[in-house]
């Protein structure tokens, strides 16, 4: 594979501005001008006329008023025959950028997609909008595949989805040459990156698509935010002449909240209860055991929770995933094995009961909330145990020193995010090189954390560690050190004679919980380091200044359930219906239950029928005629025809 020597960043269109929140809201509050009938982009057959105006296609097929962000520019570039590399956060609207060119250009759009489940849902969603879409994969019988192949060769498909391994077969190349391709879109393009978190070897072979299908514009799309991956995928997929579109990675509809971990399962239940009843969510835990136990605990609390991890039978995993995708309001408790390609747009919350290894992991995982742009919450409980456990995992990992050092840096950045007294979003975006203002939609912005002077407690702790080390050559973990400081009378203290230490009992003014908070924060700042299998604490590089009293140690005061006041109102708004007037809420719920029935009957996920934003617009504007439905975002011609009457009945019945 050749690699290009040109700098892929030479002509990057950096979108520095953080997109203003209203750019992400449904256009004009759900309303848009009715389409101009005289310029319909479709033929009577339903086929979009090649060369049609992209905006007309967006309105007619998707029922959306206008492109947002870079969508129009990207579509222009590809419709004109150029290549494009698109970095856009989850929910940014990447699909439209390859689907519209596929509809507007002569031929069939080919989409390379890594997950079969994802393919099915995308094809269902496209068909619901009247687009002639199909996929080729191993779940089909040979006759089913033959049908799709015939339709493709006859030019009867607008879009065809395939997995990379299938595309790499010689017979698939031969088949595709029998028809005409309009565009090739490589979705989840970061999978080509060997060092990334989702590497798939089959992606490497996609580097020669330009030779296999000369003249067909190619697009690489991903929600990855790092420069290294960007550079790598541009080279490996051989896109030296592509235009690059890098959007802001802000997800303004996601509210970030991080609270200290005390009783994680209870806190989790409390958090889930603070959400709108029946919200779909994902709970991430580190170990399989913890996943199983948490799911069971939630079910015991009456929450519809399922488990997902690599230790479960494939059939169980598939069943749980399908329930999560298709039903309303299922909570999936999972390890990180559950994630990529979870295309469900109406996940209302992502909760972490264990801290992720890196800010990137946190961003990816929390990013699965609110793909539809509706208010959502990313919630995490984090504690001292997380820090110790992560350190232990790094120490025990098989890599060399440099590798471990890098893991250590990832962890430090994650800790800094957890302990910041500033805006969480600012910290998060800063990690990806974006500058921004305090967001007003994270826990620290909603309720500024109180700080207190932690210098003296820090000195007491450090000096205890130093004495134990110097006088007795001993090192201990947090639990025992806190016992010494608080003057506890444990068997261990007596056995080692630690009550004779000069610092014994000098920290009785702080509670156990306070001390753990102090230690956590000192770890996050490199004043302390945790080492070894038992997480014994030692002085960090920044400790000397503290011992000499030269470094200020402002600490964040832990507050539990920070959702308490204002923030919980905002958080509850995270349910689409709660953003509504109480009067409209009942109608929203009625529409939601109607949607559930239709989706079950058709065997498709609820959002394929209508997404939450569309239901909300319907509940607010209560259109009374089929014509008035044209004003609702997300209702294109096909859905108006399929569901229009039924929706009007639900609205009429609600009075
Ligand atoms: P991504 O693939 O980048 O995660 P999607 O393509 O799934 O994002 O789009 C996210 C959501 O936004 C979907 O519900 C999609 O239909 C909607 N959407 C995309 N473009 C527009 C637009 N121009 N106007 C309104 N909604 C849009
Ligand atoms: Zn903020």
What is the count of distinct domains? 4
Number of helix segments? 27
What ligands does this structure carry? Answer: adenosine-5'-diphosphate, zinc ion
Uncertain regions: pLDDT < 50 for 5+ in a row?
1-38, 562-575
Just give the CATH class of the largest domain: Alpha Beta
**Radius of gyration over C-alpha positions, nearest whole angstrom:** 27 Å
What is the correct CATH architecture of the largest domain? 3-Layer(aba) Sandwich
Principal-axes geometry comes out as globular
CATH homologous superfamily heading of the largest domain? P-loop containing nucleotide triphosphate hydrolases
Structural class by helix and strand composition: alpha/beta
Written overview of the protein:
The longest helix is centred in the last third of the chain and has 21 residues, at 582-602. Residues 1-38 and 562-575 have low confidence and may be disordered. The N and C termini lie far apart (65 Å). Helix 15 (401-419) packs antiparallel against helix 16 and helix 19 (478-485) packs across helix 21. With 655 residues, the chain is α/β, with parallel strands linked by helices. The strands form 4 sheets. An 8-stranded parallel sheet has the order 1-8-2-7-6-3-5-4, sandwiched between helices. Strands 9-14-13-10-12-11 form a 6-stranded parallel sheet, sandwiched between helices. Helix 12 (314-326) links the parallel strand 11 (305-308) and strand 12. It folds into 4 domains: 68-246, Rossmann fold, CATH 3.40.50.300; 254-449, P-loop containing nucleotide triphosphate hydrolases (Rossmann fold, 3-Layer(aba) Sandwich), CATH 3.40.50; 452-556, Winged helix-like DNA-binding domain superfamily/Winged helix DNA-binding domain (Arc Repressor Mutant, subunit A, Orthogonal Bundle), CATH 1.10.10; 576-654, Orthogonal Bundle (DNA polymerase, domain 1). The structure holds adenosine-5'-diphosphate (ADP) and zinc ion. Residues 64, 67-68, 71, 88, 90-96, 345, 371-373, 611 line the site of adenosine-5'-diphosphate.
């Amino acid at each position: 594979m050749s690699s290009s020597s040109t700098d892929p960043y030479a002509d990057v269109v950096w979108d520095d501005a953080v997109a203003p929140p209203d750019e992400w809201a449904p256009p004009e509050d759900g309303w848009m001008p009715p389409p101009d009938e005289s310029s319909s982009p479709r033929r009577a057959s339903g086929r979009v006329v090649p060369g049609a105006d992209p905006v007309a296609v967006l309105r007619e097929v998707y029922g959306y008023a206008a492109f947002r962000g870079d969508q129009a520019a990207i579509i222009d570039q590809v419709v004109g025959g150029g290549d494009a590399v698109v970095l856009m956060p989850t929910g940014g609207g990447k699909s439209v950028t390859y689907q519209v060119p596929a509809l507007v250009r002569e031929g069939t759009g080919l989409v390379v997609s890594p997950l079969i489940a994802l393919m099915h849902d995308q094809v269902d969603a496209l068909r619901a909008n009247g687009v002639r879409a199909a996929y080729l994969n191993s779940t089909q019988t040979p006759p089913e595949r033959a049908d799709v192949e015939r339709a493709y060769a006859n030019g009867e498909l607008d879009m065809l989805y395939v997995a990379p391994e299938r595309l790499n077969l010689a017979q698939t190349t031969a088949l595709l040459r029998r028809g005409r391709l309009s565009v090739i879109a490589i979705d989840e393009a970061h999978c080509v990156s060997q060092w990334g978190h989702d590497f798939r070897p089959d992606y490497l072979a996609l580097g020669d698509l330009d030779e296999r299908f000369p003249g067909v514009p190619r697009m690489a799309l991903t929600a990855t935010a790092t420069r290294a991956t960007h550079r790598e995928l541009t080279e490996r997929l051989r896109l030296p002449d592509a235009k690059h579109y890098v959007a802001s990675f802000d997800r303004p509809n996601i509210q970030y909240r991080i609270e200290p971990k005390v009783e994680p399962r209870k806190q989790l239940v409390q958090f889930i209860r603070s959400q709108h009843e029946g919200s779909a969510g994902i709970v991430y835990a580190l170990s399989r055991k913890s996943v199983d136990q948490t799911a069971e605990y939630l079910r015991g609390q009456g929450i519809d929770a399922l488990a997902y991890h690599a230790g479960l039978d494939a059939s169980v995993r598939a069943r749980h995933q399908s329930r999560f995708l298709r039903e309303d309001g299922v909570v999936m408790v999972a390890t990180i094995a559950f994630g990529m390609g979870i295309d469900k747009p109406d996940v209302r919350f992502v909760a972490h009961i264990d801290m992720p290894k890196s800010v990137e992991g946190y961003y990816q995982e929390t990013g699965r909330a609110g793909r539809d742009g509706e208010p959502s919450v990313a919630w995490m409980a984090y504690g001292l145990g997380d820090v110790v456990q992560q350190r232990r995992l790094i120490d025990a990992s098989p890599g060399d020193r440099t590798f471990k050092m890098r893991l250590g840096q990832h962890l430090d950045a994650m800790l800094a995010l957890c302990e910041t007294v500033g805006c969480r979003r600012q910290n998060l975006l800063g990690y990806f090189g974006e500058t921004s203002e305090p967001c007003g939609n994270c826990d620290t912005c909603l309720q500024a954390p109180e700080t207190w002077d932690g210098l003296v407690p820090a000195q007491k702790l450090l000096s205890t560690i130093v004495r134990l080390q110097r006088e007795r050559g001993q090192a201990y973990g947090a639990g025992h050190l806190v016992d010494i400081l608080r003057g506890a009378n444990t068997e261990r203290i007596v056995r080692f004679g630690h009550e004779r230490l000069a610092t014994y009992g000098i920290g009785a003014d702080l509670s156990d919980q306070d001390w753990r908070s102090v230690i956590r924060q000192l770890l996050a700042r490199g004043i302390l380091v945790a080492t070894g299998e038992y997480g014994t604490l030692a002085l960090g590089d920044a400790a000397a200044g503290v011992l000499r009293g030269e470094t200020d140690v402002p600490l964040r005061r832990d507050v539990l359930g920070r959702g308490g006041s204002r923030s919980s109102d905002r958080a509850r708004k995270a349910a689409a219906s709660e953003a509504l007037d109480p009067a409209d809420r009942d109608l929203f719920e009625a529409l939601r239950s109607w949607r559930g029935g239709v989706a079950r009957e058709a065997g498709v996920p609820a959002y394929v029928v209508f997404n939450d934003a569309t239901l909300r617009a319907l509940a607010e504007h209560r259109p009374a005629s089929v014509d008035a439905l044209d004003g609702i975002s997300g209702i294109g011609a096909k859905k108006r025809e399929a569901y229009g009457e039924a929706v009007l009945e639900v609205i009429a019945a609600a009075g």
